[in-house]
Amino acid sequence: MRRLFALLPIALAAVCVRAQEKQAPPDVPKVVQLKHIEPDGRLLDLLRTLGVSASGRVGGYIALRGPRDAVAVAEEAIQRMDVTQKPQADIDLRGWIVMNAPGDSQIREAAPLPEELAGVAKQLKAAFGYGHLQLLTSFMLRTRAEDGGNAGGQIPLVTTAPPIVYRFDFRRIDVEGDTPEARKLHINNLQLRYDVPNGPSLNLSTTVDLTDGQKVVIGKTSLSSGAEIPLILVLSAHVVTD
Tens digit of pLDDT for each residue in 39-96? Predict the structure, then answer.
């Protein structure tokens, strides 16, 4: 009798295992066509999360294997993802670095402001009284929506001293709106750094929202050369293609 009771749990466990084996649905294969997307890491991670394994792409197809319901869900997910992606818009970003330096300062004479910055000059004079605005340098770069970019160069300010080295960069630019009139651009993590010879570095860090084609004053830092010389960044962004 004792031997019978000792064997009973083993027999029950074997019955449970057999019942689980009967309940587990068999894996089924499924070949799915891929038209636009690649079986990259993101897609394979999704399939693994659904409990489906996948082979690599062969001749425009990918082979799935897993429980029937899971494979059906994976196939539907692939069909939703496998669509033509609209290309990201090209964006031209223009920057102007402007200073306000009276004629009696030790700073060299720079170029006059271009006519396209006349509105900005009027705004700066009304807000801060700047009446001696000059263009130090300008830059242009092309990027794409959801990408970043950078530019840089040298600014000779004093003939007897090495030039200032500047670097402009941003992490990402996003575009909202379908028409130029309604389009908004959001520039994330904008950084402007001036490395001043024999002096401290000057830094400007901000996030910017502007409309397509709008010229905006982003911010200013001050260069001390006997008097405070404001260095001002003006920025404009324009979507070239949609």
Answer: 888 888 888 989 999 887 777 888 999 999 999 999 999 888 887 666 788 999 999 9
Q: How far apart are CA 52 and CA 66, in angstroms?
A: 5
Options 3.40.50.1970, 3.30.565.10, 3.30.1370.120, 3.40.1400.10; which CATH number does 23-81 get?
3.30.1370.120
Who contacts 134 (Cβ-Cβ below 8 Å, separation ≥6)? 98, 99, 100, 101, 109, 110, 111, 112, 113
